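Reader question, answered in our methods column.
A reader sent in the components of a multi-part assembly and asked whether the whole thing could be modeled at once rather than chain by chain. We filled in our standard form and ran it. Here is what they sent:
COMPLEX SIZE: two components
ENTRIES:
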Amino acid sequence: MKRRTFLSGAAGLAVGLALPYLARAQGGPLKLGVLTPLTGAGAQDGPRMLKAMQAVVDEVNKAGGVLGRQIALIVEDDQTNPEAAVRAAQKLVGVDGVPVIMGTWASAVTSAVAPVCWDSKTCLMTVSGADSITQLPHQGYIFRTQPTTTLQATKHAEYIVSTGAKKVAYLAVQTPFAVTMKDIMTAVLEKNGSSIVRGVVYEPAKASYRSEIDSVLAAKPDMIYLNSYSPDLTVLLKDLFRAGYTGGRFTQSYAYNAKTAESLPAEVTDGLVAVQPSSDVDSNAYALLQKRLGVASPDSYEAQATDWVSLTLLAIEKSKKTSGADIRDAVRSISQGSGARVASAVEGLKLLREGKDVNYDGASGNCDFNEKGDIIDCRFRYSLAKGAKFELIKIV
Amino acid sequence: MDVLQLIANGMMAGGVLAVPAIGLAAMYSVLRFPNFAIASHATAGAFAGWIANASLGLPVLPSLIVALLAGGAIGLLTDEFVLRPFRRAGFITTAIGSLALTIGLENVVRLVFGNEMRGYDLPLARDVVLAGIHIGPQQLQNVMVSVVVMALVFGFLSFTRMGKAMRAVADNPPLADIKGIDARMVARIVSFMGMGLAGLGGMLIGLDSSIDPLTGFRVMLPIFAAAVVGGLGSIPGAVAGALVVGVAEELSLLALPPSYKSTVAFLAIILILAVRPRGIFGREAY
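And here is the structure of the entire assembly that came back:
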């Protein structure tokens, strides 16, 4: 056998052996990471966010996938627990090699997971509100569809002023945003002739908050801002009722959700005002989301989850590459700008394949990001608890 | 802040904590290992009571009995089939086995009932004010249930043959064996009683707040602190320990922000182990 024949034969053999592997690497499903609370305080929202993401993925897979590949979500439970979340994130980036992690909910969890993500050049998409998160040195890898604490606190304080409340008590579960939020609200309230008469940061997961409530009521507030999570909010609302408090109460919808409402008697909850960043309920993307999930009014978390996975897929198609850094660099080129406005991943992917530019307007909002990775604008929905139902007060 | 009000709040919290703490102490005194599975049995009892109360429409008191029986029955089964095989391998292995058991059982509850919070079907009453101290009628009722249960447990241990046998095994297992006491039967009875009290305690805690699969896990630390402070294995000690931990947690608010409340239970454990490792009442079972 001549040397050349041997060499080309060997090379051919090597390529032949490697082919199935190469084919698998190219044609195998594209893995995306989901890290969301399936247990713990966030367990009311995590599974729904996951479902919303899976629904988009199913839709895109049916329409041919992205870059000719099917998409598979690799799901881990963050347990609403920073320590468990970091372990899960390390598994996602180390073992599964995902370019993006979507779904962290609690700010403490997101803050803990973020360094794992930027160190491994993995994008992180989150609903966590703490301002500190996008101030981390994340090199552009964090995208947040939730309004920042500053934006939220300002709007909430403006609403409280509009109710005429003068003496506001601030009762917050220990979170990275508890103190920031109080400072911002204090500033807005004082500018408008109100003030915070008592601020208490309490520990999560206690069976009783009577002494904390006593301390707050001693200041005779006419409005109490309950910056809580569901388990402690239930206890607080009951303890406030027992203590005979009849003034205003204001909380976040992630704490007072449909399930919380069901677990409490109406006399305890009636009159409570709950606020949440509103989905863009008039948008096409929202209408598509309603249809996709078969739900009459998907909430802001389902909307944001829909937008993360859509943005990721569009960014991959746009850059024609699948690394975390490529996604990071491409997101703003499909989320904002002068491209054709699209309301779903399938629609956007089709246009991108035709070589056109797109601007994704999502179900949670128009998904325009600033240089820190925060959304630029957002609407808020205020609802009134009545029985186990919610009455819309306004969306502003 | 009103010190008397804080003490009252602490006594109420401690009174309820005492029930599972007694269960833990009783099991420790006889079986000689800290049974961490008490957390998930408290949760299981709370959910059994919830089925009785919210689904079947039973009033609270019969539902509490259901919680007790369910906690006890599950405790009996898990001890027989999960923990007993571990006991030969020693104290640490059994304790770790009980940790694994609590995680497993908690997730069984999660599988069956899901994660959402549930409330018992009972009317909420406004507080009554007694001598300037306001107290919830439900809390009072819970504490009364605790007191009755404690009295029954003491009566059982003092006056019944089985109760005395249990104390004998706790005091001196070889001697009890020579006297012909069936240690295996005593182990079964104490598992039933201990986990039954955990189940009852879980529901008592849930009555005042709401329940979810983590209900028992959240109170595990204060329960352990109560048992350690009182002298692990001592039943009157568990009651005293629960009251001390309950009141200390509330009184800490005078000096510390509320976000440090749990520290008190840890500090109590460290302090007692450093100063008086036998606990307030020592290691006497009774």
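What stands out: The CA atoms of residues 30 and 170 of chain B lie 4 Å apart. The domain at 3-113+132-275 of chain B is CATH 1.10.3470 (ABC transporter involved in vitamin B12 uptake, BtuC).
Send us your own complexes using the same form.
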